[in-house]
Amino acid sequence: MSTASTGWSFVTTDSLEKVYTDGDPRPLDRSIPQSLFLGETGSVQVAFRPPLDGRSPDLRPIVFELTGDSSRFATLHTVELVPCTTMAYPGLHDDRYDREAPGLYPDLLRPAVDGEVMPLFGWWRAVWVDLRVDDAADAGVHRLTITARTADGDPLFEDTVEFEVFPYELPPLDIVNTHWFHCDGLAHYYDVPVYSEEHWNAIDNFLGRAAEMGATSVLTPVWTPPLDTARGTTRTPVQLLDISYSAGRYSFGFDKLGRWLELCRKHGLAQVEIAHFFTQWGAEATPAIYVEEDGQVVHKFGWHVAATDPAYRELLEQLVPELRKFLAAQWSGDVIYHVSDEPHGEKALATYEAARAVITDLLSGCTIVDALSDFAFYQNGVVPVPVVATNAIGPFLDAKIDDLWVYYCVSQQRDVSNRFIGLPSLRNRVLGHQLFAFDVSGFLHWGFNFYNSVGSRSHVDPFQDTCAGGGFPAGDPFIVYPGPNGQPLDSIRFKVFAAAMRDHRAMQALRDVAGKDAVMRIIDTDGAGGSLRFDAYSYDPNHYRRTREQINRLVVAAWSGSGAGPS
Length: 567
What we know:
The protein is α/β, with parallel strands linked by helices. It has twelve helices and 25 strands.
């Protein structure tokens, strides 16, 4: 810890440290180099605390500045505290959380306007520094100097960090990484009509950040997704399809869906994930679908219509072929379909099978996946591509499933990786290692930007409520915050998750030049003499920096030796 003669304390640390107000931060281990490929982001933090000597504090911000030629590739953000009321469920989580009690904890990243940052008198806070180089002409060693001074210009701190940027790009992520995108939250937070130009602007910006985080797909609201909606209630309609009904026939308008697909193309997404055909947790009812009849828009399907109602099958028989035809003509990537989310138990197995029978012939040849934790659904053949909860993965791994996906959410609180605010960042970062080690084909998360309470009974201000009204662990519902003018603001968790996906891409690169075993020799450890598992992994944050450096150096040696670079 560096304590200036002024009494201020400063500590440079890495991106896997969370700077809590009441704990001395872990210093950056400078024995581990920091290397990057083109288009990657490297990050450090500077934690700081004002003097504790009893003098009256200067009530003005201090000023941080990034200097040197490399500063043109760097950005500065403040790390903001956010309110967290629920950290985990008592008795259901392990003892390796950073924080379990409600409180104000670091998560939100805001651009530091003019470098000004207001101290927390008597407590630690931090700034976050990113460096990214996109052009091979700018590759090489980058030294970035970070300074801090008082409002009067008196120096408080100076440090220089070094990044080495290689003149190569990593291969694209070769697994599906899909996140549920919630259009209703954007409309409500920004107080704009659904699919107005202001709403489309926000959708565009948020899709771009999803792609920047490593997402390859997002949930597409062809109809309002029947997800996180309390029984008998509705969420704000965000249906992309225009549907009308007259003289016994349905007609469909695909203009808004076409615009959505164009944005997905713009941001380089490789897949689209179609909203579920039936309600969550058992597929008992139909999604909320709105249809124009006799000049009036009516709520024709929803909780009030059973999944097996012939009227719904009548709609699907006309809709699905038209939808598939449109997607085949307008979308060159993959399309992922769902029946129902998270079915569990014998009763749900029966209702799920019945619902699946309503749609399965219309989706012949399509990819159908569903999130579950009950092995019986796979064993009975009703879910051929399971998306398995990470805390229920054992039997699925034993079955050696070729096309296995995983997910985590609110219930994955004990031992496994997750991205709750109360967890150490390494439990977010390790996911990249796990997905690669176990040949996982896809990852799904339900909450990219869910700004509602549990069951969508009300809307929340995500700056005041990170727990969906207190029902979910802090950070589970969203990983970005809604910033000014429809622009998303990143979180610490966003940055670390993105790094995990880039780790996976680096592992792909090493696998392609040296084989998977070469990667496994580096990453296959639980930190205690055993092998890497979904519920056992290294708790040393520097392990993730060291392994990434080892992988980077081996990849660059192979690419530079061949003279060909990545294929």
